Amino acid sequence: MSKRDGLFVFIDAENMRKAVRECGYQKIDYRKLYKWLTETKGAKRVYLYAGYIEDDEAEKRKFESLEKLGYILRLKEVQKYPATEQPFQVTCENCKHVNHRVRKIEGRSKANCDSELTLDVINQGSRGRYSEIIVFSGDGDFSKMYEYVSKDMKRKVLVFSPMQLWPARLRTSQKLRELDSDGCLSLQPLETILPKFAAKNKTGLRR
User: Where residue 50 sits, what CATH number does that domain have?
Assistant: First the structure.
């Protein structure tokens, strides 16, 4: 099996969404991305990790169409955390007067798929199903996984993440830059390939 025959791709959709927007693009066209990965790079499997909203029928149809296209989907329901107010006290050091204040915490939503991505990379690699991987994410939390795949499994690791444009390049962890310098992985600038599959007013997943 050649390296190209054994290429698997793992895409952190939320990380990609934020990085792409900070690079000046509106959306990712996942159909174009899939075509580029399979036809140009020779990827045999493309995993997509994303959050979903239970009652969003339009999003459900998008995921179904991408699954039919060939993506292997790993979906996790988006957890919503409403805005809250947290009371706290501040005591004056001089007069010991206690001031009562309220800290406002903004609402947020989250669907972290890091554990699912890590398990797939390790499990598929331990079964000998790939000889190299591409990961779309600048998250430093994957650094130990990269070290294991590269040093213990002896597989090639390629990571696409912003490295040129400000402030997008801040999304690329310093730890990943160090692993690139050490030869543990090959860190590639996401900006150089974005024109292939990301542009304004194109269809694609977004939140």
Answer: 3.40.50.1010
Residue type for position 58: A
User: How does pLDDT run across 116-160, given as a tens digit for each residue?
Assistant: 999 999 999 999 999 999 999 999 999 999 999 999 999 999 999
Residue 202 has pLDDT above 60, yes or no: no
Tell me the residue range of the domain where 70 lies. Answer: 7-78+111-199
Q: What token pair was written down for 143?
A: 């650094």
- Residue 99 in any domain: the answer is no
Decide if 17 contacts 192 (C-beta within 8 A).
no
Q: Parallel, antiparallel, or unpaired for β 186-189 and 156-161?
A: parallel
- Rounded mean pLDDT of the chain? 85
Structural domain total, the chain: 1
Query: Per residue in 97-122, pLDDT tens?
Result: 777 776 664 534 454 779 999 999 99
Write out the two tokens for 144: 């130990």
* Nearest-angstrom CA–CA distance, 191 and 179: 20
Q: Token digits for 73?
A: 């989907």
Whether 105 is covered by a domain: the verdict is: no
